[in-house]
Amino acid sequence: MAASDEIPILSENEGALLDVVRRNQPITGYQIAQGYGKSPVAAFNKSKGQIYPMIRRFNKAGLIEGSYVEGDGRGTEVWNCTEKGLEALRHWARQILDAHLLLEDPLRTRLMAFDLLTEKERFDWIMDAKAKVARKIQEVEAYNSEVDVPFQQFVYDNAISALRMRMDWLDRLLFAHTKTETSADKG
């Protein structure tokens, strides 16, 4: 991203991080990293090694501007979105790409290799996935009570609905697996 008058196209991670700046400004890089570390979403950049370079790119591109905290001997900077940053976010928020419609799903992809597993391994995998989804539901519910974000109820509803849908899918998989296993035992 180079500094120019052109509004840059933001990736998902860039848009999410820039929106964190916008919603929490003024905010330090450390505060951004702390917020990401608490998120139950695994895909967020949780590494300071990714957050700070992105902040530098945003600053260089004119999407954010920083100021030093007065009286802070460490040289801490706080960041605010610029008008250019807000315009980039508006563009990002309006986008609906094909990649957003059917998301990558590592569990679904692994299922295509189920034929390599024994019946017990398949059963154990399903039960382990169900337990982890149940824990993630609890984590999202707890996180929802700790944060305050725009349109929070809809964001929460999307996350919980996706997890419940995944649990329903795992239940159907378990039913089909046990039905197949029972049929094989009778044969």
* H-E string: HHHEEHHHH
> What's the number of domains?
2
What is the SS-derived class? mainly alpha
Q: Any idea of the CATH class of the largest domain?
A: Mainly Alpha
Alpha carbon gap, first and last residue: 63 Å
Helix content: 55-70%
Number of strands: 2
Structural shape = elongated
In CATH, the architecture of the largest domain is: Orthogonal Bundle
Number of helices: 7
Output the strand order for the largest sheet: 1-2
> CATH topology of the largest domain, anyone?
Arc Repressor Mutant, subunit A
Q: What's the structural blueprint in terms of helices and strands?
A:
Blueprint: H1 12-24, H2 29-38, H3 48-61, E1 64-68, E2 77-81, H4 83-94, H5 106-111, H6 119-146, H7 152-186
Antiparallel strand pairs: 1-2
Helix pairs in contact: 1-4, 2-3, 6-7
Give your account of this protein's structure.
By secondary structure, this protein is mainly alpha-helical. The protein folds into 2 domains: 12-98, Arc Repressor Mutant, subunit A; 104-186, Methane Monooxygenase Hydroxylase, Chain G, domain 1, CATH 1.20.58. 63% of the residues lie in helices and 5% in strands. It contains 7 helices and 2 strands, in the order H-H-H-E-E-H-H-H-H. It has a two-stranded antiparallel ribbon. A hairpin with an 8-residue loop joins strand 1 (64-68) and strand 2 (77-81). Helix 1 (12-24) packs across helix 4 (83-94), helix 2 crosses helix 3 (48-61) and helix 6 (119-146) runs antiparallel to helix 7. The protein starts with 11 loop residues before the first helix and ends with a helix.
